[in-house]
UniProtKB/TrEMBL annotation:
<dbReference type="InterPro" id="IPR010982">
    <property type="entry name" value="Lambda_DNA-bd_dom_sf"/>
</dbReference>
<dbReference type="Pfam" id="PF01381">
    <property type="entry name" value="HTH_3"/>
</dbReference>
<dbReference type="InterPro" id="IPR001387">
    <property type="entry name" value="Cro/C1-type_HTH"/>
</dbReference>
<dbReference type="GO" id="GO:0003677">
    <property type="term" value="F:DNA binding"/>
</dbReference>
<protein>
    <submittedName>
        <fullName>Uncharacterized protein</fullName>
    </submittedName>
</protein>
Length: 82
């Protein structure tokens, strides 16, 4: 695995791209479900542009990955969530 691929796996966009591929969905199919062009999805996955928050949420829902975007509660001193 290359350094870039490892770094990419840590990003939300990288996780969404990988999930799309693992689900066997094409960029064209996902684009239609999100309401954008195939070129737009390609641009996001190539990190040339980024989706706005609404588009990002739709993308995650299409791939059943809402947990990727779930908020994390800050920890209190002592390690417990607030």
């Amino acid at each position: 695995m290359t350094m870039g691929a490892d770094k990419d796996s840590l990003t939300i966009l990288g996780k969404l791209r990988r999930a799309r591929a693992e689900a066997g969905r094409s960029q064209k199919e996902v684009a239609a479900l999100i309401g954008v062009s195939e070129r737009t999805v390609h641009s996001w996955e190539s990190a040339h542009t980024a989706p706005d928050l609404e588009q990002l949420c739709r993308w995650a829902r299409v791939l059943d990955l809402c947990a990727v975007l779930s908020p994390v509660e800050p920890a209190k001193a002592g390690g417990q969530a607030t």
